[in-house]
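Structure first, sequence second, as always.
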């Protein structure tokens, strides 16, 4: 059973013994939901980091292939040498 923390009605706190199990159950469900939210956010962050890393690798590979093709054709200018790994 899913609980929306924003709209969930908290059980009233009474001193009598009947309400204690409901309070404990509500507290337990809230803790589980918060843990689930934290794990989802962590997984989303991990996926975004992986996507960003693969995008950077693609851009670097593309840049290096363009530079190497320029070098082969003799169009390599001195200011572009800074970006090319093979000149270092």
């Amino acid at each position: 059973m899913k609980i929306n923390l924003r709209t969930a009605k908290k059980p009233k706190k009474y001193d009598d013994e009947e309400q204690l199990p409901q309070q404990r159950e509500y507290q337990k469900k809230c803790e589980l939901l918060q843990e689930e939210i934290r794990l989802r956010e962590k997984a989303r962050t991990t996926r975004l980091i992986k996507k960003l890393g693969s995008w950077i690798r693609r851009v670097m590979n593309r840049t290096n292939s363009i530079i190497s093709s320029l070098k082969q054709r003799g169009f390599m200018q001195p200011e572009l040498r800074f970006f090319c790994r093979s000149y270092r």
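Margin note: DSSP finds one helix and no strands in the chain.
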